[in-house]
Design brief:
Layout lengths: L1 E3 L14 H11 L2 H4 L5 H7 L7 H26 L11 H9 L9 H33 L1 H5 L7 H14 L5 H27 L12 H16 L1 H4 L6 H6 L1 H4 L1 H29 L7 H4 L6 H32 L9 E2 L8 E2 L1 H18 L2 H5 L4 H20 L5 H23 L7 H29 L3 E2 H7 L5 E10 L5 E2 L1 H10 L1 E13 L11 E7 L2 E8 L7 H5 L3 E2 L2 E2 L5 E11 L8 H13 L3 H4 L7 E9 L1
Parallel strand pairs: 5-7, 5-12, 7-9, 12-13
Antiparallel strand pairs: 1-8, 2-3, 4-6, 8-9, 10-11
Helix pairs in contact: 1-9, 1-14, 4-10, 4-14, 4-20, 5-6, 5-19, 6-8, 6-16, 6-17, 6-19, 6-21, 8-17, 9-14, 9-16, 19-20, 21-25
Length: about 625
């Protein structure tokens, strides 16, 4: 077997754009979600759970918010989890691939199977969060109209719907373009957050006592059940942490850290403390502390800026949803969809039309269904807390298996974060009847779809394997005088050393074989990117037949004609323009064979029909493609 070597690729996160520019772009994409939490987090913590707005509780709530950001966002995600990149890519599925490794291509069992399912479920839950984040962010910002001009209250929902439509309409411009547009606006937003906070803190410095974490403990102990349940709203200050990790491939580790430590974290801390200082002086301001902390003349500019920031907040989860979907497709947990790469410099920046508009429909439906950001807050949190806890479990396994940490050291890091996340999750469980069921429903539906697709693909492969013929046996049985057609036939099939069913069918029925026959197999690695030196393998069998194996990462879009053009086989270069591509197309027929539940068999058959064609997915020229159909009973 020979390996075709080419110049190694440069990782996309290191190409083209400087760290400062990427840090500014990261502000506009990565930190939009967490950056707009001041719009509603403080209000929901007190109002929703009827916690008295008095001095100990205000200082205690500020302490909870500060230490939640320190433990979960700063220490867990920014310092440690960002180091757990899968060749530059982040997100819970990339982390799962790191832990499980190449075993994802096999039938995983035991602990690894549990970790794999947990990773998939955590990813599925993020889709529900991806629908809620834009809805609650935009709606909470447009509700500022009711503060600035109560007579315009009827325009809150229509305006939120129009803004969401506009946001999803520009997604095809790409994350980089969106980041360039949004970055300066978010820098202004964080600056305003800090200025508002400092202005309020100048009137009351007592809130700085919140730096002592004992005030957080006093808050929880003195408020009993109401204090514990209010953790469900305190958690709103760290939503966006998981999206921060999922968007790692869009910007890279260093720009994200720069943006957090230099801008986002100080501005958020000052603003939460400023809201606390306002409430110490005026407890009645709890109705909308963010908008009331500014001067009267600034209400309209604040509403406008908050609306812009809320639009931007939605971007982190939208970009993360695109990245996660591509990862799931490449790892064969979702059917093929149309993917558009929107940047020549950053392979991780992608746009998926179907995902984009399904999310748009979900966001608008949530706004119309829940009507108020306070109602949406009841649906928000449980999906993210569950995903964060799963990330902590996977990270612990990564520390032990991949990084070689001893168990006590790994536990010392992960246990405090895990306990805090379990507390947040427990508080959010009580939100399920009031709306928390929505992200769980979305996550459950997506989880069923992914496991059904994966199981169905495995069953089809097993059915096709029943009549498979080793390629060497196929060559040995070929008649010496078989007719040889001019040109090159490429049979795409995942099965090294095995004759593809389409080749068997073509030879049997047409009694002809092309002068040169290539068996082409595409293998997706457990890494996001594969070096050029390891991308192509060639093995020759004789009599004009050979095997080409193309390796690519789970974040790469493969162009098969470009990948095989000018490859040297048998002393001659392959001209892709003289190639005919033969593809197998299976039609699934539900049968009495017990492989899956009947409803799952029908679901898999539907997903298989709806999947984008292999010719389009692999960029094959339509005029050079021949499809050979077969029926498979499952």
């Amino acid at each position: 077997m020979s390996v075709v070597r080419r110049k190694d690729r440069v990782h996309p996160a290191k190409v083209g754009v400087g760290g400062s520019a990427l840090a500014l772009g990261a502000l506009g994409v990565v930190f939009g979600d967490i950056g707009t939490s001041p719009l509603y987090a403080f209000r929901e913590t007190f109002v929703h759970y009827h916690v008295p707005v008095d001095r100990p509780n205000v200082i205690g709530a500020c302490s909870l918010m500060l230490w939640s950001m320190i433990l979960i966002v700063t220490i867990k995600y920014v310092v440690f989890i960002l180091r757990a990149d899968n060749h530059g890519e982040g997100g819970i599925l990339a982390l799962t691939a790191l832990v499980v490794g190449d075993r994802h291509v096999q039938k995983v069992t035991g602990v690894m199977a549990t970790l794999l399912l947990l990773g998939l479920f955590g990813m599925a839950l993020l889709y529900g969060d991806g629908a809620i984040t834009p809805a609650i962010s935009v709606l909470s910002a447009t509700e500022g109209l009711e503060v600035a001009a109560p007579a315009l209250g009827a325009w809150v929902i229509p305006l939120a719907v129009l803004i969401l439509l506009a946001l999803f309409a520009i997604q095809n411009r790409g994350t980089g373009t969106v980041g360039k547009l949004f970055g300066p606006v978010m820098f202004l937003w964080f600056t305003v957050l800090a200025v508002l906070g400092v202005a309020r803190l100048s009137t009351n410095l007592d809130v700085f006592q919140a730096i002592n974490p004992l005030h957080a403990v006093d808050y929880l102990s003195s408020n009993g059940l109401h204090g514990f349940l209010s953790l469900g709203s305190v958690f709103l200050v760290v939503t966006g942490g998981e999206a921060l990790y999922a968007d790692l491939g869009h910007f890279g580790r260093r720009p994200i850290r720069m943006a957090w430590f230099a801008v986002a974290f100080p501005a958020l801390t000052l603003n939460y403390f400023g809201q606390g200082a306002l409430l110490l002086d005026n407890p009645d301001a709890i109705t909308n502390p963010f908008f009331l902390m500014g001067p009267q003349w600034a209400r309209w500019p604040l509403v406008l800026l908050a609306t812009c920031a809320a639009v931007i907040a939605s971007q982190a989860l939208i970009s993360g949803a695109f990245s996660m979907t591509v990862q799931a497709m490449q790892l064969d947990y979702l059917p093929r969809m149309t993917v558009r790469h929107t940047s020549a410099d950053h392979v991780g920046q992608v746009y998926l039309p179907l995902v984009n508009w399904v999310l748009a429909a979900g966001c608008i439906g949530l706004v119309l269904g829940f009507q108020e950001s306070s109602a949406l807050a009841s649906a928000y949190g449980i999906a993210v807390t569950a995903t964060m806890f799963v990330t902590t479990l996977l990270f612990y396994k990564l520390l032990r298996l991949n990084w070689g940490w001893a168990a006590p050291r790994a536990l010392a890091l992960c246990l405090p974060m895990g306990l805090l996340e379990l507390g947040f999750f427990g508080a959010n469980v009580f939100k399920i009847p009031a709306g928390g069921w929505f992200p769980l429903l979305v996550g459950g539906v997506i989880m069923v779809a992914m496991t059904t697709w994966r199981t169905g693909r495995r069953v089809v492969a097993e059915r096709l394997a029943v009549g498979r013929v080793p390629i060497k046996d196929f060559i040995a049985r070929l008649p010496e005088d078989i007719a040889r057609a001019p040109g090159t036939a490429v049979f795409m099939f995942r099965g090294d050393g095995v004759a593809p069913p389409s080749l068997l069918a073509n030879t049997k029925h047409n009694r002809v074989l092309h002068r040169r026959v290539i068996l082409l197999s595409v293998v997706t690695a457990a890494e996001p990117y594969v070096a050029e030196s390891e991308r192509v393998e060639v093995e020759e069998f004789g009599r004009g037949l050979c095997q080409i194996t193309l390796h690519h990462g789970f974040m790469e879009e493969l162009n098969v004609p470009q990948a095989i053009d000018r490859i040297e086989i048998g002393g001659a270069e392959l001209d892709v323009h003289d190639v005919t591509f033969f593809l197998g197309r299976e039609t699934v027929i539900p049968s009495e064979l017990v492989s899956m539940a009947p409803w799952r068999e029908r679901l898999f058959a539907f997903m298989l029909r709806a999947a984008a064609s292999a010719s389009r997915f692999f960029k094959l020229p339509p005029e050079q493609v021949v499809e050979v159909g077969s029926q498979v009973e499952i």
